[in-house]
Amino acid sequence: MNSTSTPQEIEEEYVWNFFGRNAEYYLQTWRLRQKGKYITFNAAAFFLGLFWFLYRRMYLGSVNSG
């Protein structure tokens, strides 16, 4: 989500219907993201990105990520 986008409201009833008993976790995550306080890091994407680019024959991307 970029800084120019406006926060979106979600209806909790839909979240509860979709996620079931795990809905509270996703609601908390959504609220933190809306406040800008939630940061994630995907270690696999960070460390294996170069190999994935090479595997997919995306050579220009592998040069830029490595």
UniProtKB/TrEMBL annotation:
The keyword Transmembrane applies. Keywords: Membrane, Transmembrane, Transmembrane helix. Pfam families: DUF2628. The chain crosses the membrane at residues 38-55. The keyword Transmembrane applies. It comes from the Bacteria. This is DUF2628 domain-containing protein.
